[in-house]
Target: Enoyl-CoA delta isomerase 1, mitochondrial
Amino acid sequence: MAAATLARRIGRSGVAVMKFKSPPVNSLSLEFLTEFSISLEKLENNRACRGVIITSALPKIFSSGLDITEMCGKSIEHYTEFWRAVQEMWLRLYGSNMVTVAAVNGSSPAGGCLIALSCDYRIMAENPKFSIGLNEAQLGIVAPFWFKDTFVNVVGHRIAERSLQLGSLHPAPEAHKLGLVDELVPEEKLMEKAAAVMAQWLALPDHARQLTKTMMRKAVLDRLVAHREEDIKNFISFVSKESIQKSLRMYMEMLKKKKS
Ligand SMILES: CCCCCCCC/C=C\C=C\CC(=O)SCCNC(=O)CCNC(=O)[C@H](O)C(C)(C)COP(=O)(O)OP(=O)(O)OC[C@H]1O[C@@H](n2cnc3c(N)ncnc32)[C@H](O)[C@@H]1OP(=O)(O)O
Model:
């Protein structure tokens, strides 16, 4: 696959490093999501792999979230395939038996934030120009219940409610204060710190850690599994509305104008 180049390396420590590399902004296209899920599945099935560090190969951007062009002016069949791929990615990452550490080395709005939230631990570069959050409301769209559940499980109900309603993108220091990221480190120390955190988590017996993780996350995962088709239908009916299409088009235009 060409668009989403994901470098993987499993060291002697049993840790893979996955680097998003889909210029210009690592947006989560259907192709990217499919490749990401396949990569996770391969690592999950590799007994030599016990943990994965997820980061970006691009400067300043971890991931710009779902590829908005995948949600604009496409067919029902396309929306169905795209949303199933988004669900699949989350089910694999949030439900992973591996230790997952996000080394967030750039901005991470919406779907990018979901990826970080789905990991076991988040370390972010301490650059106030980098921001992270579920900003869907700013685009005139609504974060689905499982994005919300994942967010609540990290920061708690009150912070999630305020942040989601306002569609806030939190600069790194604020994200740390809110508990949205666990640690801030200078950018050049990010991978070193991620490896140290990984070693700490891998020092425990896998079975005890994995069963505990399942216990903590199962209810939220089961909720999407039980309502997967309904969630796809909701997405299609939401995104097919002309008012939503208009909001998405205006948002894309705003992004382009910002450049000129
Ligand atoms: C009732 C219940 C119903 C439930 C229904 C559920 C419905 C849920 C539906 C959807 C959920 C969506 C979640 C998402 O993830 S939406 C995506 C949100 N993402 C963003 O808001 C980020 C937008 N991008 C930016 O803010 C910036 O691009 C940034 C990432 C900060 C990088 O800035 P910069 O380095 O300055 O780069 P540019 O802005 O110049 O961007 C370069 C080009 O990339 C294009 N771009 C950027 N982001 C996206 C994206 N997410 N998708 C597609 N394309 C993107 C941008 O337009 C530039 O393109 P070009 O060079 O052609 O001008």
Summary: Residues 42 and 102 are 18 Å apart (CA to CA). The domain at 5-202 is CATH 3.90.226.10 (2-enoyl-CoA Hydratase; Chain A, domain 1). The first helix runs from residue 30 to 44.
